[in-house]
Write a structure and sequence with these properties.
The chain folds into three domains: 51 residues, no CATH class; 131 residues, no CATH class; 100 residues, VSR Endonuclease (Endonuclease, Chain A, 3-Layer(aba) Sandwich). 44% of the residues lie in helices and 16% in strands. The protein has a four-stranded mixed sheet, sandwiched between helices. A three-stranded antiparallel sheet has the order 1-3-2. It has a three-stranded mixed sheet with strand order 4-5-6. A hairpin with a 2-residue loop joins β7 and β8. α7 packs antiparallel against α8. The longest helix has 16 residues. 36% of the residues are buried.
Amino acid sequence: MPIDIPPELRDLLGRQSGVLSRRQALSAGLVAAAVDNQLRSNRWQQLQRGVYATFTGKPARDAQLWAAVLRAGEDAALSYRTAAELYGLDRGPGGPIHVTVPAGRRAGIVRGGVVHYSRFLERTRHPALLPPRTRIDDTVLDLALTSATFDEAFDWLCRAVGRRLTTPARMREALQERQQVRWRTDLLAALADIGDGAQSNLELRYVRNVERAHGLPAARRQAKIIAGNRTRYVDNFYEDAKLAVELDGRASHPPEQRWDDTHRDNEHASLGIMTVRYNWPDVNYRACAVAAQVGELLRMRGTAVRLRRCASSCSAVA
């Protein structure tokens, strides 16, 4: 028969998406026999060992997350890609549920999950959000520092800052609190570039491979251009020369995007702005040629430029 749920337990179930642990049930005054009866009668279902859904039917994602974090034990927090999912930073649910517990404490086996251990969880765990999760800045750093490549790490930083979930300043503070950080120098430089407006791997590589490596003047990133009643943003704008350098991603743009780019370039031309476009192979494999071309265009439009070689084999300087 159904059991009478105490008011305090009802409140708890409301916060935990209808999921509770056996310990919580017994602490609220339910007897073990009553809990076991609910499970035998299929009014409740076990999601993890010692963690139950107090309803029938397939549990939703939030119930599964609560079950994982309750199974991991006290002070546990969802982390890595699972925390990123909750912040809207990662694409929908998929893969294992990631949970972090304090170092030195043995966590139970989380079915369908991965358990991480951290000495700093007390600091990195968000103080209020439910289900418990790591803070956004620390979530991004965890993902960046476990990325296979620096490009992937930089992409996590760009996503978080670009979606206004955090700021470069907050990310730098979180980074400074960690020791023995992989890519520390590169990450700090990347955060500075993101703060200046570089919002993708391609933009960062243009800044480093083309502009800085060859002594080009610094463009204004994500510069606002107003044409008539429309506002546009340019990836890189050399204001004195009225030269816009736009960067197109790895995949070719769909037809409607190409038309939009054409209209944008035409609007720029009406303002006396010249637009050139480069793609991923240009910036990564033909950076010297791109630097030479941008340098020549800047000179033609009245900006003094003195290119330098990025290496002994550099072709940017005739």
